[in-house]
Amino acid sequence: MAISLDDLPIRDDLRGQSPYGAPQKKVPVALNVNENTHPIPEDVARDIVESLAAAVLDVNRYPDREFTPLREALARYIGHGVQADQIWAANGSNEVIQQILQAFGGPGRSVLGFPPTYSMHSIITRGTGTEWLEGRRDAGFDISPDTVRAEIERTDPDIVFLCAPNNPTGTPLELDTIEAAYEASRGIVLVDEAYFEFMPADRPSAVTLLDGRPRLLVSRTMSKAFAFAGARVGYLAADPAVIDALRLVRLPYHLSSLTQAAAVAALRHADEMLAMVDDIKAQRDRIVHELTELGYKPWPTWSNFVLFGGVDDPHAVFEALLARGIIVRDLSIPGHLRVSAGTEAETTAFLNALRDIRLGA
Ligand code: PMP
Predict the structure, then answer these.
(1) What number does the ligand 1 atom closest to the CA of 163 have?
(2) Domain coordinates in residue numbering, the chain
């Protein structure tokens, strides 16, 4: 007889939980998990392969546990005077977040998040035995300094998660809200900047607030702007003492030598890799414009995706798009769907299909 989860001596606090579940389907137009759908440029791919070829000759040895060249390359990329000893990296920012919770969370401790937000924030929180507390947002999914202060005072969390800009809504987060959260809280404040590169170019990163704020952590990823989701590289900027704390919980050699080599090679081509970002932002703005014309209600977004309301039956529209070879994300937010901005051709395919569905064609 088949064994189910309930038959296993699994931790009580994991009973009844659901795993991360974005559908992985092979369809011609996949706009459901906020990937960068542009393939990486061929000359960059060639340089990465050459670096991998060199690294593979040493793969009999454990990798550099401190991934020093990668940390130096990430510090240079981030700028703002951030030094390599302030940088940490792991297999995706998901792993960075997990390590933060292993070091600063755990049983008897709590995280305050602000739903609707990135689903892995609560899943990783619970997975590390940390309590997940829900803060309230203002109208329009905003979080004002007063709101963040009030929610921190109400819940007294050990860790505050702020997603800037927020997934799945795309909502910007102003620096004064981050400053207010830091002042009001006694613990760690993590700003998840997974979509930082899609913000308006003149808007500052939370990295500019790091000086003098040792409890402030800023995580980012190469999965989005760098089109590197399959390579699994996320990173963090914080006080060097925070990096020391993460060394206590990381598994030795957690970043393979192949991952390190590939990431360092990609960062050598940061300018070329980021040239795709402008294209994606243009397609995102086009989605907002055309969805508005179709009568939908797209929310303001600083990311590579658009959350839009005014969808009478999100599940039916999701299925109708899927039947046309296009996958978007149904996040169970009533009346809403989320779509990632793709290439111009993918975005056109999505908009044309949605128009047909809207008009009953
Ligand atoms: N943070 C946010 C807000 C995200 O949306 C994602 C990916 N969807 C991640 C972190 C994780 O990205 P990765 O593990 O690929 O770095």
Answers:
(1) 3
(2) 5-40+272-358, 42-269
| Residue 122, C-beta contacts closer than 8 angstroms, at least 6 positions apart | 113, 115, 132
Classify 42-269 by CATH class: alpha beta
Kindly report the protein residue whose alpha carbon is nearest to atom 1 of ligand 1.
Answer: 194
Peptide bond into 240 cis (omega under 30): no
CA dihedral 108, 20, 278, 40 (to 10 degrees): 120
**C-alpha–C-alpha distance, residues 330 and 3, integer Å:** 30
Whether 119 contacts 15, CB under 8 Å:
no
To the nearest 10°, the Cα dihedral for 171, 288, 342, 137?
20
| pLDDT digit string, tens, across residues 156-179 | 999 999 999 999 999 999 999 999
Q: Does ligand 1 come within 6 angstroms of the Cβ of 92? A: yes
Note the pLDDT of residue 21.
Answer: 74
CA angle 36, 192, 138 (to 5 degrees): 105
Rounded to whole angstroms, the Cα distance separating 119 from 124 reads 9
Class of residue 212 by CB neighbours under 10 A (exposed 0-12, middle 13-18, buried 19+): exposed
Residue pair 320/361 in contact (Cβ under 8 Å)? The answer is: no
Is 187 close to ligand 1, i.e. is its CB under 6 Å away?
no
pLDDT in tens, 79-105: 999 999 999 999 999 999 999 999 999
pTM for the full model?
0.96
ipTM over 0.90: yes
- Regarding the beta carbon of 221 and ligand 1, being less than 6 Å apart is answered yes
Tell how far CA 233 is from the center of its chain: 11
Contact call for residues 347 and 38 (beta carbons, < 8 A): no
| 51 within 8 A of 261, measured Cβ to Cβ | yes
CATH class of 5-40+272-358: alpha beta
Residue pair 331/168 in contact (Cβ under 8 Å)? The answer is yes
